[in-house]
Amino acid sequence: MTDGISALDIEEAGAVLAAESARFASFGWMRGTSGNLSVVLSRDPLRLAVTASGHDKGELTPADVVLVDGQGAAVQGGKPSAEAELHARVAALTGAGAVVHVHTVASVAMGHRHPGGIVFQDLEMLKGVGQPAHGVEVTLPVIANSQDMKELGDRLEAARDPRMPAVVVAGHGLYVWGGHPRQARHHTEVVEWLLELELTR
């Protein structure tokens, strides 16, 4: 038992993350060992189960997760993703219960085309991120990449729009979040659909 989190809690979170990773990998969004996912297991103190570093995301098992603290440092398990600190920052900042990071072609291409942010409007799919289908403009922020997770987190905090549960990291990929893993998955699929649509225009 660590901070009230049992081995079973971590294993169950690992099973969820393995299933979600396999789904995203099947879409080609987590090629090789790219991308990472997390789920919040505790708020006080903040603890997350994060996919382990260096694993093929289409072949994860429930054991391929690491328990990390609010700074993304390993509390239990092996080596977490290098971006675990950003997952923790997003969870603390937004109240999210799950965070998804995928490397999609559309997110990188659209981030390059629109470095100031990608505007969506008059699309039925906007309902999938809790916005009206008509009458409003919603911007998906684009932030510059950094290998320093604190700096990247600062950029995300400064740029994020509470109406859009996602940001594009230029030249890198997409971060999306939700209240729980299924909602984070749905948000990811909706935002990626929006990006793919804009890419065809």
TrEMBL record:
The keyword DNA damage does not apply. It holds the Pfam family Aldolase_II. Pathway: Amino-acid biosynthesis; L-methionine biosynthesis via salvage pathway; L-methionine from S-methyl-5-thio-alpha-D-ribose 1-phosphate: step 2/6. Gene3D superfamilies: Class II aldolase/adducin N-terminal domain. InterPro entries: Aldolase_II/adducin_N, Aldolase_II/adducin_N_sf, MethylthioRu-1-P_deHdtase_MtnB. Keywords: Amino-acid biosynthesis, Lyase, Metal-binding, Methionine biosynthesis, Zinc. Signal peptide: none annotated. Its EC number is 4.2.1.109. Its cofactor is Zn(2+). SUPFAM superfamilies: AraD/HMP-PK domain-like. The keyword Amino-acid biosynthesis applies. GO terms for molecular function: methylthioribulose 1-phosphate dehydratase activity. Catalyzes the dehydration of methylthioribulose-1-phosphate (MTRu-1-P) into 2,3-diketo-5-methylthiopentyl-1-phosphate (DK-MTP-1-P). This is Methylthioribulose-1-phosphate dehydratase. It comes from Streptomyces vulcanius. The gene is mtnB.
